[in-house]
Amino acid sequence: MNAPRQIHWNNIYATKLVNGVSWYQDIPEKSLQLIHQFMPVERQPAVIDVGGGASRLVDALWAEGYRSLAVLDIAETALAKSQARLGSASEHIAWLVADVTDTKLPNDAYDLWHDRAVFHFLVEPEERSRYVQLLRQALKPGGVLVMSTFAPDGPEKCSNLTVRRYDCDEVGRILGPTFKLLLSDREIHQTPFQTQQAFSYCVFQKL
Ligand SMILES: C[S@@+](CC[C@H](N)C(=O)[O-])C[C@H]1O[C@@H](n2cnc3c(N)ncnc32)[C@H](O)[C@@H]1O
Fold first, then answer.
1. Hey, what CATH topology would domain 3-206 get?
2. Which ligand 1 atom is nearest residue 2's CA?
3. Tens digit of pLDDT for each residue in 31-59?
4. What are the boundaries of each domain within the chain?
5. Residue 30 alpha carbon to ligand 1 centre in Å
6. Strand positions, DSSP E, 40-158
7. Long-range contacts, 124-127 (Cβ 8 Å, 24+)
8. pLDDT, tens digit (0-9, with 9 covering 90-100), for 178-207
9. Rg for the chain, CA atoms, rounded
10. Ligand 1, residues 31, 73, 103, 164: which to mutate, most atoms within 8 A of Cβ?
């Protein structure tokens, strides 16, 4: 576990309101749309939201009938907020406090891996390769990755941390040939501070 990183993120969620951070969404519409399209609830997929923070994605998926849900985040304070919001439903969700670049997950465990605004913080190549190694190992063959990062014209920093910006072809080059790009999209995110951020949304399938 990268201690300064964990302290940073724990502190963010301990000191800010859930809707007082730039990445807040009432409803994560684009993520939901892509999940519905590529991993519908009828398949009863196993889903992990990596770096899920206090996002309401898990609430929406639970309400729609997705029943195998895990949320991983380095910040316990973020997961605690989601748990409190979800009440008794939270007992049916796996909450994993972990650094995605330095943890283990079971092999072939998930049908869908969702990441909004986490991978772009990995500015060191070794961290990115550890992330990709874990993703490759934990996603089932045929499983789907929905990844959203700041786009090439998006912000250079988030939460005071430098990010790396991507289009989906560049994400694909980092993921390597085990992942096939199914869809490239963009979204202009309206922050709670009335500013705009360009995001890339990329869907890949693990071959
Ligand atoms: C910009 S927020 C996005 C949160 C959420 N995905 C959303 O869309 O609301 C980035 C999240 O990634 C988490 N995070 C950052 N680095 C991480 C790491 N190495 N491992 C796991 N989580 C991490 C942070 O705690 C934070 O919740």
1. Rossmann fold (3.40.50)
2. 19
3. 999 999 999 999 999 999 999 999 999 99
4. 3-206
5. 17
6. 46-50, 68-73, 94-97, 110-116, 139-150, 157-158
7. 127/101
8. 999 999 999 999 999 999 999 999 999 999
9. 16
10. 73
